[in-house]
């Protein structure tokens, strides 16, 4: 069992966890195509350095948790490591039905996701689609404050998501934003139809933060 700090205090965000998973998959793939020990050893250190560069202000116990990556060489080891590492992921901010209602006060008969079925450790944002209104709703942590963004959503086909940069089933999300004292304009982009898959693909919050910035200009 991996222990991080006392009482197993979480220290990773969902996108950082996904980044670690991505790097470890690349490492294991390298083991499948070469037996050169010097190359593999260099890649191990490079993988660790990349991960450490993404996570700031770690203490020694937390570094020790991630240093266990240096012993990984095959898929089964990755699976075990990631399963234990999940305990070190900070859940997305607590959300209940009251929170959602406050974030979307003007929406009548708002259809909400089943919150009890969601593992909030897997989220960098919460998103869902209301088929009745053909609208998509996003709840995002913007510098420590939860914000709600809604927009029309028309499913398209396979494409690159503006939030996670994954090649997934996407749709055009368009939100009406204020562009002047009494004028509004529509802004948006193609994003994943499945927001949970999008969260799984996120290895950085840069695109998500940029998306919020564009819609909040």
TrEMBL record:
InterPro entries: EF-G-binding_C, EF-G-binding_N, EF-G_N_sf. Residues 11-93 form the Elongation factor G-binding protein N-terminal domain. Gene3D superfamilies: 1.20.1280.250. Residues 107-207 form the Elongation factor G-binding protein C-terminal treble-clef zinc-finger domain. It holds the Pfam family FBP_C. This is Fibronectin-binding protein. It comes from Halalkalibacter hemicellulosilyticusJCM 9152.
């Amino acid at each position: 069992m991996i222990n991080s700090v006392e009482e197993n205090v979480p220290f990773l965000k969902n996108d950082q966890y996904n980044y670690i998973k991505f790097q470890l998959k690349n490492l294991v793939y390298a083991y499948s195509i070469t037996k050169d020990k010097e190359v593999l050893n260099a890649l191990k250190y490079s993988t660790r350095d990349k991960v450490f560069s993404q996570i700031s202000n770690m203490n020694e116990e937390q570094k020790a948790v991630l240093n266990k990556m240096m012993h990984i060489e095959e898929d089964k080891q990755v699976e075990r490591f990631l399963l234990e590492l999940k305990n070190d992921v900070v859940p997305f901010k607590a959300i209940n039905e009251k929170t959602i209602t406050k974030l979307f006060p003007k929406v009548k008969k708002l259809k909400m996701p089943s919150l009890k079925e969601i593992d909030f450790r897997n989220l960098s944002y919460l998103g869902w689609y209301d088929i009745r209104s053909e609208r998509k709703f996003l709840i995002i942590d913007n510098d420590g404050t939860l914000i709600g963004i809604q927009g029309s959503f028309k499913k398209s086909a396979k494409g690159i998501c503006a939030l996670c940069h994954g090649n997934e089933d996407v749709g055009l999300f368009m939100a009406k934003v204020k562009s002047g004292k009494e004028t509004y304009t529509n802004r948006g982009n193609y994003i994943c139809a499945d927001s949970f898959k999008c969260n799984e693909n996120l290895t950085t919050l840069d695109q998500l933060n940029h998306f919020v910035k564009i819609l909040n200009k």
